[in-house]
Amino acid sequence: MNNIKAVLFDLDNTLIQRMRAIPKVAAAICKYYFKDRPEDHEFISDTFCDCFSDGYIKNEECYKLFVDIVGWETPLPYEHFFRFWCFYYPINSTPVDDMTDSVMYLKNKGYKLGIITNGPIGMQNAKMDTLGEDFRAMFDIIIVSADFGVHKPDPSIFSFACAELGFETNECVYVGDHPRNDVEGARGSGMHTIWYEGFMPWDEQYEPAKYVISGLRDLMEIL
């Protein structure tokens, strides 16, 4: 990878870890809406975490499943729950292990850095804002798909990011956890690919990524 000049990342389950935030949202749900069932808090929290563990299932479907399993007799209307979610989920965003050290290692080596993330503008920006100004300062470009108008795995969002950094796609590498959205999408644009394993199973219909990592610190051995 001697020709690589830029490293771009997915956000969720690559730079931040979804399942470190979900239990904190579950705790808030128990605190505010299940005060009358303290003996069930562990069950309710575990169920919430199970129902919301997959970030690619529609949020409303996750909520309906949760309500049914825990037997919430007078649940919040989904619109009210969604406002609750939009506050508590992003403010509990937590980096994956070694995120800052690994990203700063790449920055100090002279790579241009970027983020390409799918999702609503408000939600994704709130997650990054929770991590602070120092987080944003590490990256030269941040693209949220809802703002760009095209979502991963469309190759154009990857090509645009590389061009904005001033490089050809074959001079850039993309790191992400999703086989289709991240690896296949980036490959379709001509970028090199690194799959962050451990969050989603690999989909065998796709060509393997050029490299596989189990933590961001592994990038120090590759780049």
Structural description of this entry:
The model has no long low-confidence stretch (mean pLDDT 97). Helices cover 49% and strands 12% of the residues. The protein has helices spanning 18-33, 41-51, 59-70, 78-91, 99-108, 121-131, 133-137, 145-148, 155-165, 179-189, 219-222; strands at residues 6-9, 112-117, 141-144, 172-176, 192-196, 211-213. Strand 4 (172-176), helix 10 (179-189) and strand 5 (192-196) form a beta-alpha-beta unit. It has 223 residues and is α/β, with parallel strands linked by helices. The chain folds into two domains: 6-17 and 95-222, HAD superfamily/HAD-like (Rossmann fold, 3-Layer(aba) Sandwich); 18-91. The protein has eleven helices and six strands. The chain has a six-stranded parallel sheet with strand order 3-2-1-4-5-6, sandwiched between helices.
Unreliably modeled segments: none
Content of β-strand: 5-15%
**CATH first level of the largest domain:** Alpha Beta
Assembly context of the chains: single chain
CATH superfamily of the largest domain: HAD superfamily/HAD-like
Number of helices: 11
Helix/strand-derived class? alpha/beta
The string of secondary-structure elements, in order, is EHHHHHEHHEHHEHEEH
CATH topology of the largest domain: Rossmann fold
CATH architecture of the largest domain: 3-Layer(aba) Sandwich
Radius of gyration: 19 Å
